[in-house]
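User: Please fill in residues for this 543-position structure.
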């Protein structure tokens, strides 16, 4: 009778093979078996049913003793010279200690192989980071790739080798949550931190010895994402306000009938505490309210999405690429119209639960890590992000009917934008300042490239500035004008002179002004293009 076949896992990248993406075991006929879909080599699966031949116990014992003696000799040989040299000083983080979570890295790459350690967000690490790394390494001359499972489901190794076999890179990918990006950087076990939220003040203090990680050369926005609120496809609820979401996830709304759904208990699903997705949701939705204690917590984004898609009573939140078989509802904030997460609403960050995905790297990081960071914000990398279901940052346009989510638009605004096209980008500023943030500075380069590629050289640029409503109307009017002027000054250095530079103060909010996140979204400069003649409106008198 034939022995049962072994099982194996495809070693190709998830972006290239559905077997690799799902980690589905497939039959192996022998050690050289390959994936039936992509023909990549199979790695034996732990659940294999392969038969084995049992050796006599004395022979096994003798072999084991021999191996132990050999291992001790090799360890003594390599450790002896290291003990005669001065050890490298330990990297100690300045400022308050950051509690570590997730397994630390102690891996050393084989001789002749460069090691790159990328730790942090599951949202970034599951799909986007491997795809970006493959594109980067291909550009660097590598052509043979395999993605191998690690000790835990959230840990993998990407192996790359040049065609001639003389050069290789091993990338250690750990996706235990955004918080672990900064603990890893602080403790020196991470070269590149990936995050689905910006670095916190206490994390900045804890990584002070690495330099200012919030500076332009260290903080990189690599893509945009929308935190989608998902329900079962058969749930009749199609839109929810931020207040309704807060009450649902806090357990204050216990029955779907209270928000217009079919009567039945609400089942809440949420990401785990290490997740940047949870940090974003907590900041944008929950505020001071605690998550209901009966919520089912998930470390993996795909598992959460699948659980909600199978439960008619369920509600959860997830990164935009993981909606899959569930259904995303429209979300409203304050007086703004409800919006579903889409390419345009997330790219402009008008969608209430849009967020930025970050990469952090120290100026002291290895050269390979710094070059990867620079690649990750390139136009090519943004196209990779698009292909993985995230939102790239290369600007696109939409007409006025699709591009104005504000509920109350001033007549002057309607007149200026009626036949214009809005770019899928909002330029934002540092808190309480008219200085552009790191993303906005890169976005200016992208806008200029788009204008250079534009088929019509007669297109005019409109810069429309807005503020939140904190403070007096006149102060906000001046601040919105100053922000539009700042963008115009920057564009002038590229030879672009806008036809309209106008501030609208706190008019046309896209979010409620009762939270820091909402006020930040309202502080923006929109960029519009028009081919028709346009006259700049007179500045509004303000006393």
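Assistant: Residues filled in for all 543 positions:
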């Amino acid at each position: 009778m034939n022995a049962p076949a072994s099982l194996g896992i495809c070693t190709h990248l998830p972006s290239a093979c559905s077997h690799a993406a799902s980690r589905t075991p497939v039959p192996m006929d022998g050690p050289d078996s390959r994936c039936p879909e992509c023909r990549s080599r199979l790695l034996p699966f732990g659940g294999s049913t392969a038969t084995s031949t049992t050796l006599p116990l004395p022979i096994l014992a003798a072999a084991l003793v021999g191996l132990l003696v050999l291992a001790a000799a090799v360890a003594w040989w390599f450790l002896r010279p290291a003990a005669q040299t001065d050890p490298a000083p330990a990297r100690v983080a300045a400022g308050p200690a950051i509690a570590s979570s997730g397994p630390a890295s102690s891996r050393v790459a084989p001789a002749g192989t460069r090691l790159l350690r990328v730790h942090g967000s599951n949202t970034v690490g599951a799909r986007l980071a491997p795809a970006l790394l493959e594109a980067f390494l291909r550009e660097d001359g590598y052509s043979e790739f395999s993605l191998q499972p690690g000790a835990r489901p959230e840990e993998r190794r990407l192996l790359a080798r040049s065609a001639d076999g003389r050069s290789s890179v091993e990338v250690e990918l750990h996706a235990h949550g955004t918080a672990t990006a900064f603990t890893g950087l602080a403790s020196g076990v991470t070269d590149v931190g990936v995050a689905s939220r910006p670095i916190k003040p206490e994390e900045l203090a804890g990584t002070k010895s690495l330099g200012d990680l919030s500076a332009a050369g260290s903080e990189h926005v690599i893509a945009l994402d929308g935190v989608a609120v998902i329900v079962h496809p058969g749930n009749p609820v199609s839109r929810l306000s931020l207040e309704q979401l807060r009450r649902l996830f806090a357990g204050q709304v216990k029955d779907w009938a209270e928000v217009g759904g079919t009567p039945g208990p609400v089942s809440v699903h949420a990401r785990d505490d290490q997740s940047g997705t949870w940090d974003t949701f907590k900041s944008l939705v929950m505020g001071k309210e605690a998550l209901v204690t009966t919520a089912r917590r998930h470390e993996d984004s795909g598992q959460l999405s699948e659980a909600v898609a199978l439960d008619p009573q369920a509600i959860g939140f997830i990164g935009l690429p993981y909606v899959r078989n569930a259904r995303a509802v429209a979300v409203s904030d304050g007086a703004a119209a409800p919006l579903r997460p889409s390419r345009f609403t997330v790219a402009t960050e008008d969608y209430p639960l849009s967020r930025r995905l970050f990469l952090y790297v120290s100026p002291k990081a290895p050269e390979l890590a710094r070059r990867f960071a620079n690649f990750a914000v390139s136009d090519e990398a943004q196209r990779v992000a698009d292909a993985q279901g995230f939102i790239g940052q290369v600007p696109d346009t939409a007409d006025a009917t699709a591009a104005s989510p504000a509920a109350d638009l001033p007549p002057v605004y309607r007149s200026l934008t009626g036949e214009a096209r809005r770019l899928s980008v909002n330029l934002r500023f540092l808190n309480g300042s008219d200085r552009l943030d790191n993303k906005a500075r890169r976005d200016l380069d992208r806008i200029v490239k788009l204008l250079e590629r534009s088929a019509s050289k007669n297109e005019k640029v409109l810069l429309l500035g807005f503020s939140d409503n904190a403070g007096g109307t006149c102060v906000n009017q001046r601040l919105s004008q100053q922000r539009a002027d700042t963008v115009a000054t920057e564009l002038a250095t590229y030879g672009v002179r806008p036809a309209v530079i106008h501030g609208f103060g706190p008019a046309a909010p896209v979010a409620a002004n009762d939270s820091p996140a909402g006020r930040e979204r309202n502080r923006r400069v929109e960029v519009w293009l028009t081919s028709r003649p346009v006259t700049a409106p007179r500045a509004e008198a303000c006393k």
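For context: The CA atoms of residues 400 and 414 lie 9 Å apart.
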